[in-house]
Amino acid sequence: MDNLKVKGGKKLSGIITPSGNKNAALPSICATILTDETITLHNIPNTQDIEKLIESLKTFGSNILWNKKNCKLKINNKNLKLPKSGKAFPLGMRGSLLLLGPLVARFKNINFLTSVGGCTLGIRELDPHLEILKALGAKVTRKGDTLKISTGNGLRGGKYWFDYMCVTATENFLMAAALSKGKSVLMNAASEPHVRDLANLLTLMGAKISGTGTSRLEVTGVPRLKGCKFTIGADHHEATTFLALGAMTGGDIEVKNCTVSDYDLIIRSFEKLGVKVKPKNTSLVISGPQKMIIKNPYTTNMLPKIEASPWPYFPVDLLPLMMALSVKSKGQIMFWNKMYEGGFLWVPELVKFGVKLSLSDPHRVIIWGGMPLEPTTVNAPNIIRVAIALFMVAATIKGESIVTNAGSIKRAHPNFVKNLRSLGADVSWITG
Predict the structure, then answer these.
(1) Three-state secondary structure readout of the chain
(2) For the whole model, what pTM was predicted?
(3) Could you give the domains of the chain?
(4) What is the pLDDT of residues 244-286, one digit of tens each?
């Protein structure tokens, strides 16, 4: 078990560049299946999820060169082959689920195991992905725990309207529709920065996509896609983490390489907690000490709140980070997770630090900030950003705290401890 040991109470300051967004890197790697030509991807983070996806592709025959030091990945799938007829491949993580669209587009017929699972947040649905492929002309049949997807002569253009904005299913739509015959339209599409990254990569490869960054995507299929070079965008989750840590510890932090226009709502949410984030060209800056008083709304009979839903709403993955920040802001505020049924099951771990809160229901929690806190040992669930949030609180408390079961952080942030140390944090990985 990977645990984090934290000696808190230190002011964190410095200049930092976040790693590439692994949620953009994973679908981008999967998109290379759509061409026999070489794709070169830059700013690829060295994370466990990406390592697993690359190993899976190698078993299919992918020729992959990964320069981890330079964050550069070169992939050629000219010799890509599926497992022998009748043998299904398993789906166990976000990356492997994203193989569905491009594999069906390339091979027309595939078998796979249905043990997709999920995480502590809740179940990760398979149905939206299959519905997308069916809308593009695929036939789906089940035999035991194996599903077979067949398309005959290939996918064709179609139209689908999501029940809700699903990021990975939107990405599968883009990849599957890129080589389909005719025009495809997706309504209520996800539009997160990592979805936009994938659409931009596919466009460089020769795909015809309109509506990138909106909730309506239109793709006109082309006969083939080509190789190209593409740079993955910086991770806005990691950028927000560093900014919040600067504010919580009274430090001065500049986060470089940000797409500043993506942060308008995030910056306003910081302001609700009494924190001013200043844009500076392609950087975001926190200058300490911050006010750290929760801003009350003009509607006096309402609590201030931060609500999380699919982009362009406030990102649900950032909610635990803002909850950690609120612990240091004076006042009370409600957090509302509209997406995951298990989004707040971890909050008893905050109470161990001395945080005062009330869990209203599975989707809403109220936190009273500015209360006295004590170092302790807490246990992180298998949620990346929750493990980080627990560390963030520990980093503000004088004394030694332990965050156990924090290894999920390595799935998304390759240099987490190294970057924190460069800012002055006293933190290290220990084995439990």
Answers:
(1) CEEEEEEECCCCCEEECCCECHHHHHHHHHHHHHCCCCEEEECCCCCHHHHHHHHHHHHCCCEEEEECCCCEEEEECCCCCCCCCCCCECCCCHHHHCCHHHHHHHHCEEEEECCCCEECCEECCCHHHHHHHHHCCCEEEEECCEEEEECCCCCECCEEECCCCCHHHHHHHHHHHHCCECEEEEECCCCCHHHHHHHHHHHHCCCEEECCCCCEEEEECCCCCCCEEEECCECHHHHHHHHHHHHHHCCCEEECCCCHHHHHHHHHHHHHCCCCCEEECCEEEECCCCCCECCCCCCCCCCCEEEECCCCCECHHHHHHHHHHHCCCEEEEEEEECCCCCCCCCCHHHHHHCCEEEEEECCEEEEEECCCCCCCEEECCCCHHHHHHHHHHHHCCCEEEEEECCHHHHHCCCCHHHHHHHCCCEEEEEEC
(2) 0.93
(3) 2-19+234-431 (3.65.10.10), 22-231 (3.65.10.10)
(4) 999 999 999 999 999 999 999 999 999 999 999 999 999 999 9
